[in-house]
Amino acid sequence: xxxxxxxxxxATGDLTKRLLMPALYRLHKLGLTPxxxxxxxxxxxxxxxxxxxxxxxxxxxxxxxFTEAHWKSFRDCLGYIHGELEADDLKQLDTKLSPRTxxxxxxxxxxxxxxxxxxxxxxxxxxxxxxxxxxVVEKPFGTDLASAQKLREQMHTHWxxxxxxxxxxxxxxxxxxxxxxxxFANRFLEPVWNANHxxxxxxxxxxxxxxxxxxxxxxxxxxxxxxxxxxxxxLFSLAAIEPLASWDANVLRNHKxxxxxxxxxxxxxxxxxxxxxxxxxxxxxxxxxxxGYRSEPGVAKDSNTETFAALRLEIDNWRxxxxxxxxxxxxxxxxxxxxxxxxxxxxxGALPRALNADNNWMVFRIKPNQAMTLLANAKQPGLELDGRxxxxxxxxxLDDTGFSAYEQLLMDAMEGDRTHFLRFDEVxxxxxxxxxxxKAWQKGxxxxxxxxxxxxxxxxxxxxxxxxxxxxxxxxxxED
Length: 480
Known about the structure:
By secondary structure, the chain is of the alpha/beta class. About 30% of the residues lie in helices and about 25% in strands.
């Protein structure tokens, strides 16, 4: 079998150290990449030995199953070249490439376009016979619609769309992929997965962490760009897509785009009905005091960047007419949780009030524990006909056979499986939906919420009269 080469541009950076190399190391340890050669490329004028020592230290810190024995064989796969992101310097890679070569841009977003252009000018984009050239790009894909379209133009100068793999690591998570499988592989679910039976859908990503060391990026991005435009929009489209006629990457992505195209537009007149922003102030986690966002290192003292964002999306098609989808993400919230929660409508007919509660939920949990939970109504043991909530949970606790999102996506990229990568029109339609929100938020200030809380109270204005947010602590698995 011919060799495959993975060239990581930005090989000395944080993404490579924390995520890419641990994933590649584990794939190597499991024997899944026997023909892979990894070439690091970066501006640092390091020797091969210094690069190897850097990766060795990183794996000892971030690879849970690290052993010195496997490190020795993994080290033999590594190479390093230093240079600028210019065509003349990149030509040093010529002798290192295989017929099958994957370029990974582990770079700051501002360098995506220049790097893609420089690789093209260096002649790295042309696929040899019986081989291929692919380019992997991390989010964010622009900061608004105009910048996303500009980035596409820069990349398409030398790269074809089918060569570009846009990574959203949420699409590599087990629970995200299982959402599709569970929907389409179980006959009992499809008949009720529509507006006739579903009351609402809530998609939540809450973090207890603040901005940490990301202020330089985050204070210019905010929660809407950082989480909702990409990660949560992907979960939204997967929850809402129509059944596939064939299990094919392009068919899947066509269906996801169709969902985005069907969303009722948000505009300047209705933005307050569809979007809420917040920013955390000082608060407490038990006895521990938590600083407000504007007091975090690197954050402007008068910053209006949102650390919480919530959306109400409505799909104008037969399946979802009248069903609101609520998306929200925030920092410094009450607990860490990520989930897709689907509430079913109340049952009709004569039942005691205690048994006719509106707490039928199907919950797909991504964190803190990957699991599926069905919340159903049942009788409380005893002489009275009292109701209680029963929980049926299927845990996804990953063992040694499980794979991280990056392991999954790296294998897909090398195998040419584009199922879990974004096509540009997906990115473009997501920006089309959210550009009016970003423009509206250029004025005014976010609503404040205490660090360690459930977020700003104004998020409730997005909800229908009989709807309530699932408490973040409940979503994280605490008692009802």
